[in-house]
Amino acid sequence: MARELTIDFSKFAEALEKVPETVFKAAKRGMHDALDEWRQEAVDIAPLDKGTLRRGIDTRIEGDGLDMVGEVTAIAIEDSPKWPRFNYAYYLHEVKGKITNPTTPGTEAKFLDLPAKENEKKWVREIENEIRRELKKDGW
């Protein structure tokens, strides 16, 4: 006697279609968290004179899905008699950072690079964990 077995995979197929969206949403949330932490650490060690540099450190995420890119940027433009509209964030980080330490004790000229170097692997793990949590929440 032959038996017939019918399996309905439609719910599985629907769930599978949602996986990329779930992963990208969680990855973006994890990236925001990592960038916020990176920004805060950069602010804490950036040279301090008037506070313009520290206020000029910002984050952004562009794109979606596999084309998503996050970055931390710094801009501190002031006018001076010698150099009108001089971006001293760039100067401190890219020029002076190669020559000497900043004059403010406890700060770093490479204020963007140092936190990234120290935390890169941790932040990648945290983004991966965020994706795992979101998938688990969705039943994966």
Task: Considering the chains and any ligands shown, give keywords for the structure.
140 residues; mainly alpha; two-stranded antiparallel ribbon; 4 helices; elongated; Phage protein
Tell me about this structure.
It is built from 4 helices and 4 strands. The protein is mainly alpha-helical and 140 residues long. It has one domain (18-137). Strands 1-2 form a two-stranded antiparallel sheet. Strands 3-4 form a two-stranded antiparallel sheet. A hairpin with a 7-residue loop joins strand 3 and strand 4. The radius of gyration is 23 Å and the shape is elongated. Pfam families: HK97-gp10_like.
Give the beta-strand count.
Answer: 4
Trace the largest sheet across and list its strands. 1-2
Largest sheet geometry: 2 strands, antiparallel
Helix segment count? 4
Question: How many domains?
Answer: 1
Low-pLDDT stretches: none
Strand content: 5-15%
The general outline is elongated
pLDDT averaged residue by residue: 87
Distance from first to last alpha carbon? 37 Å
Rg of Cα set: 23 Å
- Helicity range: 55-70%
Order of helices and strands: HHEEEEHH
Coarse structural class: mainly alpha
Protein name: Phage protein
InterPro entries: HK97-gp10_tail
